[in-house]
Design a protein that fits this description.
With 377 residues, this protein is of the alpha/beta class. It contains 11 helices and 13 strands. Helix 2 packs parallel to helix 7.
Length: 377
Amino acid sequence: MGNSIQMVDLQGQYQRLKNEIDCAVNSVLESAHYINGTEVQNFSANLSQYLGVKYVIPVANGTDALQIALMALGIGPGDEVITPDFTFIATVEAVALLGATPVLIDVNPADFNIDTEQIERLITKQTKAIIPVHLFGQCSNMDAIMNIARKYNIFVIEDTAQATGAFYNGSQFQGMAGTVGDIGTTSFFPSKNLGCYGDGGAIFTNCDMLAKKLKMIANHGSTVKYYHETIGVNSRLDTLQAAILDVKLKHLDDFNLRRQRAAEFYDRAFQNHPKLKIPARNSKSTHIFHQYTLTVPEGENLKLQQELKEKGIPSMIYYPVPIHQQKAFNQKSEQISQFPVSEMLSKCVISLPMHTELTFEQQSKIVNEVIRYFETR
């Protein structure tokens, strides 16, 4: 790709890690153990140690991870699950696929994570779980969420697809993202901070009983081959992807540090601009910047995106349509709330290039073009 600016530069990162990754891939090719090879167990053990969690169950993708987590908790028709309105559809999709009811909740305008002050009024006798989404790279307010969950005896499933490697340091609860609640889930989609070269995901838990259920459900409901105790699914991380992830896990802290430095560059350029709001930092969580998301005046995000595109600069709008406005869900979710923040954000957010290979020259061009756009407005 040369010096062109990428939203996520996976080619540049691969070239930097080429020798390590090629060696890991070649080892799998030579062994021909493509399913459940030793690399899967090694990666699971190493990620478990990194996160400080007892069990890591690798699966095929992040959506499967969510669905299997819900299945292990027995969630299905008649049950309600509280989850944010401003998120990728997979979080809510997994709930609906099992016949349960997603109960949507608005997000905090500061950090875009679930608005914990609204949770209690949405809890009913049918509420079985809360799924906080650690959006864009930092944790939700897990102190508040865990206290509410304990008060009402409901489960917490952390969707940490965008925050693997972030650390939550609350006054009552501490731990790596995905390890504070009953179950954590993540995705290893290539663009993630810890991403593979295809699809992949994982589930985390410290509970022995849940770990056994999760493993069994992910393996056709079986613990002994050809003997099936429950209805399950076929969801596994293949050996090639595990080998790649095990290499990249060793570099994850460096990946996150590089993203944090890139975010600081953006912050310095934009923090005093009257029309730009830089990402807020949650004092209880580290921010690993899966995305660097600016808030601009309403309606300017699409126009700015087009202007940047014409200058050779990619950008993304996460998310242009809140879940409650999606055709797939406007009749399927329990809408007893209003969503002014989610609706506002969909018209005001824009995410700039954010990855481990950004250069000073590239970021300088990006910030100059963003500022130039607003000079005439």
